[in-house]
Design brief:
Layout: E1 10-11, E2 17-18, E3 27-33, E4 36-41, E5 49-51, H1 55-76, H2 82-89, H3 93-104
Antiparallel strand pairs: 1-2, 3-4, 4-5
Helix pairs in contact: 1-3
Length: about 100
Amino acid sequence: MILMCRGEVWIGNGGVVLCPACLGHDIVKGGFFRGKQRFECRGDGCGRVFVERDPRQLVDEIQRAAIREIAVNLVLAGVVNVAGIANATGVSVRTIYHDLEQARG
């Protein structure tokens, strides 16, 4: 199972740090940034630099992404309107419209 978060550290099975850009495991530590470990990907010219995050934040982001996906599907199905979803989830109407445009294609 891979836990993912927006552009930061992805943790794979066994606690291995994976690059969020290429999912490579050729990662080296690169010091600290604002008290958090910094990593650099050395795989196939990727060079992505990213920092570790609290696992609790990862779970929160995954849950929020799932709720937004469900909300977009409800709007596309015509079950609820955009304003209702925005009020229920605490996400702005503009963000819901952006997600709808991405879902429609």
